[in-house]
Amino acid sequence: MNVLLIYAHPEPHSLNGALKNFSIQHLLEAGHQVKISDLYAMQWKATLDAADSLDFSPEKPFNPSLDSMQAYESGRQSPDIAGEQAKLLWADAVILQFPLWWFSMPAILKGWVDRVYAYGFAYGVGEHSDSRWGDRYGEGTLAGKRAMLVVTAGGWDSHYSPRGINGSIEDVLFPIQHGVLYYPGFDVLPPFVVYRTSRVDDDRYAAICTGLGERLDNLFHTAPIQFRSQNGGDYDIPALTLRTGIAPGVTGFRAHIAE
Ligand code: FAD
Q1: β-pairing, 93-99 with 2-7?
Q2: What atom in ligand 1 is closest to the CA of residue 151?
Q3: Are 2 and 91 in contact (CB under 8 A)?
Q4: In which residue ranges of the chain is pLDDT below 50?
Q5: What's the pLDDT score for residue 196?
Q6: Residue with CA nearest ligand 1 atom 11
Q7: How far apart are CA 48 and CA 68, in angstroms?
Q8: Which atom of ligand 1 is nearest to the CA of 99?
Q9: How far is Cα 67 from Cα 128, in angstroms, rounded to an integer?
Q10: Residue of 118, 130, 148, 194 with fewest CB within 10 Å of its CB?
Q11: How close is the Cα of 25 to the center of ligand 1, in Å?
Q12: Which atom of ligand 1 is nearest to the CA of 153?
């Protein structure tokens, strides 16, 4: 199968760098095809701006969404954006690997999402009418592909437990897993998270690799998180709130995951 690893860490000799190398090796040994987008090594341009369209004109006001759509539809996107979209279309599974920085992804990876997820590619897909709000949240360009986060965090496991001070890891990662990955169609697997990174010695590193290796071995077998699909009947349209009778009394992120 084809696996794309999107990787964001500035230091090749970091824990993340070692885990990235481990994953590539492990996937290749299992017979997969692997491509990598090493964003710092690529000197990925992290800011979305007018120059992302080859037809950009300094005299014209820049409209981030509409200019993105026109560039995507006319084949006039910046080549680095089109190249990453081609990798996504090639992939059967996509892994996003990064250190948790301020409860989210590093800015360079957010900039990858902002720029690669063009209007017409990742959003604005499908029929938009009073009875349908496009193909998203379970449908869309990337439907049928799998995605998984590999995240390292300085905080402890307990700090990210359901009553932990940082909020549960499911809640912290919800905007990425539900918003960035499920929205354009991916089936999202439970994340692989390494906590308390300041306490990684050789023995723990070996255990982390064993765990990560098992997750990679099951990349195409692990059950995805059961996010509710937008067009599967759980939501009133066009309000897009959960129908009465679906998860009664449950609010917040948790309500959008089926029992
Ligand atoms: P490294 O610092 O490279 O390594 C961590 C440990 O692993 C070290 O002890 C190192 O000796 C060991 N190690 C490295 N490679 C190997 C190897 N090959 N074999 C054995 N051991 C190895 N944390 C949070 O929980 N929440 C946050 O919101 C958050 N925000 C942050 C914001 C910023 C800007 C920064 C800089 C950090 C933040 N952190 C946060 C902490 C951050 O998540 C961790 O520092 C990061 O995940 C560690 O990953 P690393 O690859 O940089 O580890």
Answers
A1: parallel
A2: 47
A3: yes
A4: none
A5: 98
A6: 200
A7: 10
A8: 47
A9: 19
A10: 130
A11: 21
A12: 43
Note the pLDDT tens digit of each residue in 20-39.
Answer: 999 999 999 999 999 999 99
**Residue 77 near residue 51, CB atoms below 8 Å:** no
Give the three-state DSSP class for 69: helix
The pLDDT of residue 130:
82
Q: What is the pLDDT of residue 257?
A: 98
Question: How many CB atoms sit inside 10 A of residue 81's CB?
Answer: 22
> Which residue, 147, 124, 152, 145, is CA-closest to 136?
124
Question: Atom 43 in ligand 1: which residue has the minimum CA distance?
Answer: 153
User: What pTM value is reported for the model?
Assistant: 0.97
Where are the domains positioned within the chain? 2-224
Closest atom of ligand 1 to 102 CA is 28
Q: Which residue's CA is the closest to the ligand 1 atom numbered 31? A: 101
Q: Which residues line ligand 1 (CB under 6 A)?
A: 9, 14-16, 18, 99-103, 152-155, 197-198, 200, 202, 205
Residue nearest ligand 1's atom 3 by CA: 14
CATH architecture of 2-224: 3-Layer(aba) Sandwich (3.40)
